[in-house]
Design a protein that fits this description.
This protein is an alpha/beta fold. It contains seven helices and 15 strands. The protein folds into two domains: 5-141, no CATH class; 151-328, no CATH class.
C-alpha cells in the first residue's frame, strides 16, 4: 500500500478516536493503531518540519518537540511527559534533536525493535528534516565498535554453489505464501497476505545470480557493494524497480534480508535471526510477523579489488539460520554510544 495522504490521515484519526495516550501499549503490527516506520517518518516529518526552536531553553525545547510529536500523531498532549523508556512507549520510539551528525545515546543499549526519531535542526534552530530508523538499522551505522550488543555468525561454504537451508517457510507466514504470488508494490512496501513468494520460489529466482559479477567499489565501500547486490536481487525476484530505504529487512515486501559476504564473519548487528520479537510490519490477516519469520539470502563472493563475483547462495529462514551459520560473539559494556551519521543521512 502506497503512503498516501488518506493512509496517513487514517492512522491519526484512529489514534485520536481511541482516546489512547502515548503511554498506552499497542501491539506491533496492529492494523489500525500501530504506525509502521515508513508512515511514522512521513507523519513526523510533515508535522515537525519548520518548527522554530530558537532561543528556547533545553528543557522547554524538548517539551515543544514532544508536544508537536503528539499533535502530529493524534495523541493528546499530557500535562507532563514521564521519564519512560522509551519516551513514547505506545509507538515504541525515542526522539533525538540533532544539529550535528554525532548521535549520542546515554546509559542504554540500542534496542533492535525500538524506533529512533532523529530530528534535524538547522543552525537557525529550525527543524528541517525528520528521519525514523529502527535500532537494528541504526546499529549498522556504528563503525566504532561501541555497540553494547552485536550478533555475529560464521559462513563456511560447502561443496554446493547454492543451498536451500529451509525447505519451507515458518508456520506463521506459510498460509500467506504462494509459488505464483503476484508482487504488489515496491521492494520496500509492506508485505501483503498471499502476495509473498515461497522460500522455495525465491530460491529458484535467486540461484541464477551465482556467477554474476559487478564492479567493486572498494573495501571501504561496503554499502555500495551491498546496494549493487540488492539491485540484482530486486530484479531477479521480479520487481520492475529498485528501492532501498535502509530498513530491515532489505526487501520488506517479501520479508527478505540480503547479506553479501566476502569473508566468513556475518555481521548481524542487533538483529538475532531466530528472535521471536515482533517485526515492524503490519499483521498478515491477524498474524504478527516475527524476526524469525524473515527469509535470509546470504551471498558469498570473492573480489580481486576490481570485480566482485558471486560464488554461493544460501537461503534460510531466521528460525533455521544458526543451524547453518554457527553463532559467535560477546558483550561489550559502554555508558554512552556515539554514532556518526553519514553526511547524506538526512537527504
Amino acid at each position: 500500500m502506497a503512503i498516501t495522504a488518506s493512509v496517513l490521515a487514517r492512522y491519526v484519526e484512529n489514534i485520536r478516536a481511541s482516546g489512547y495516550s502515548i503511554y498506552h501499549p499497542i501491539t506491533v503490527g496492529h492494523p489500525d493503531l500501530w504506525i509502521p516506520t515508513p508512515e511514522l517518518e512521513v507523519l513526523l516529518d510533515q508535522g515537525l518540519r519548520g518548527l522554530a526552536l530558537s532561543g528556547l531553553p533545553i528543557r522547554t525545547r524538548s517539551k515543544v518537540v514532544k508536544t508537536r510529536v503528539c499533535e502530529s500523531l493524534g495523541y493528546p498532549v499530557p500535562d507532563s511527559f514521564r521519564k519512560t523508556t522509551p519516551r513514547f512507549p505506545g509507538q515504541a520510539f525515542d526522539t533525538y534533536t540533532q544539529k550535528a551528525n554525532n548521535l549520542q545515546i546515554w546509559n542504554q543499549e540500542l534496542a533492535p525493535s525500538r524506533r529512533y526519531v532523529l530530528i534535524r535542526v538547522s543552525t537557525a534552530d529550525v527543524v528541517t528534516r525528520v528521519k525514523v530508523v529502527t535500532g537494528d538499522s541504526l546499529s549498522l551505522l556504528d563503525t566504532t565498535g561501541t555497540l553494547t550488543r552485536k550478533f555475529q555468525a560464521r559462513c563456511i561454504p560447502g561443496n554446493a554453489a547454492t543451498e536451500l537451508v529451509s525447505q519451507y517457510d515458518t508456520d506463521t507466514i506459510r498460509p500467506h505464501v504462494r509459488d505464483d504470488a503476484t508482487l504488489l508494490g515496491s521492494p520496500v512496501a509492506h508485505p501483503r497476505p498471499r502476495h509473498l513468494l515461497t522460500i522455495a520460489e525465491l530460491y529458484q529466482r535467486l540461484s541464477p545470480l551465482v556467477g554474476t559479477t559487478f564492479g567493486d567499489a572498494g573495501h571501504d565501500q561496503e554499502r555500495n557493494r551491498g546496494a549493487r547486490l540488492h539491485r540484482l536481487v530486486c530484479a531477479a525476484t521480479g520487481y520492475a524497480t529498485y528501492q532501498d530505504d535502509g530498513q530491515f529487512p532489505d526487501v520488506r515486501n517479501q520479508l527478505l534480508e540480503v547479506k553479501l559476504q566476502t569473508s566468513p564473519t556475518i555481521d548481524l548487528g542487533l538483529v538475532c535471526p531466530n528472535s521471536l520479537d515482533p517485526l515492524d510490519v503490519p499483521m498478515l490477516d491477524g498474524a504478527q510477523v516475527r524476526h524469525c519469520d524473515v527469509r535470509y539470502a546470504v551471498f558469498y563472493a570473492r573480489t580481486d579489488g576490481t570485480t566482485v563475483t558471486l560464488t554461493n547462495l544460501f537461503l534460510t529462514t531466521g528460525v533455521d539460520f544458526f543451524g547453518r551459520f554457527p553463532q559467535f560473539g560477546g558483550l561489550v559494556s559502554n555508558a554512552k554510544l556515539q554514532i556518526h551519521l553519514p553526511g547524506d543521512f538526512f537527504d
